[in-house]
Amino acid sequence: MAMVEGIDSRGMRHCETTALGVLLRHEGLDVSEPMLFGLGSGLSFVYWDAKGMDFPFLGGRVKPFELTRNLAALLGLELLVEETTSPRKAWQNVARPIDAGRPVGLQLDSYHLDYFTTKVHFGGHFVAIYGYDEQHAYLVDTESQGGTVSTSLAGLARARAERGPMTARHRSFTIAVPAGLTSLKDRITPAIKACAEAFLNPPIANLGHRGIEKAAKQVPKWLQRSENPREDLPRVALLSEKAGTGGALFRTLYRDFLAECTQLSENGHLRTGHRLYAEAAALWTQVAALIATAGESGDAEHLVQAGSVLHELARIEHDAMRALSML
């Protein structure tokens, strides 16, 4: 058996920030989950309806692992990333740092993890691994998934080897915090401005504020788009509110990040952004409820209402990011 000592496995809401928190606290850097999310410029939006998809997907954050890369670059962290097509080498990349006393972050498909009761393929899931024995791996996952958990080594290997949307090639990573780390307060403005710039100027129409506007036009048609609306629509609502987003499609996390920032700065643009994202978070929860009700009732009027709220959200988030871009 190999086990990293002194792991702080406090529960968090989102998987990537949960894994980051474990790795950084072990290095002596204790940052709140909203601050991790915000400093990683994690907020985004995507309306994804690719060919071959059974039903559209609403995403509220940047691509998997982009948050981690953003955070490491912003703070000057030493991020070591390993990827390989070899399962044997992939395990060596994990066992070596654990044997040396360092936890490891993993990106994998949650479908194959023993403790996941809802079996849905999702290749952008993250955990921190801090130990193993001959049969099991010992992990930290989100609070909703149990916090400190274990899974079979065979299941972990399948989860890491899975191929499909958002998967990585057995990706593992470690983080080291250098001496003389830059002040977090000094990095808040660059992180916010980078997030705002990407949101305000998306390269395609299904991203950022343009993506929310696209969703506003498409969501009212969802009863016709779905072959099984009683399952598809409530699932979208569940993914928005419960599936590791922290609530309101990550808007609650970003609202709380901005609230922390207002404690460090009296900037009026920052206060405006916080106020508007508090409003947006409440409206996203309303959209999720309307979509779920439409699926359960078959009444398209709820989707029409959801579309109207989404139009308002596109405006609110555009105005919020425009204010934040002026920091």
From TrEMBL:
Signal peptide: none annotated. Residues 14-142 form the Butirosin biosynthesis protein H N-terminal domain. Residues 155-324 form the DUF4872 domain. InterPro entries: BtrH_N (IPR026935), DUF4872 (IPR032369). It comes from the Bacteria. This is Lantibiotic ABC transporter. It comes from Streptomyces achromogenes.
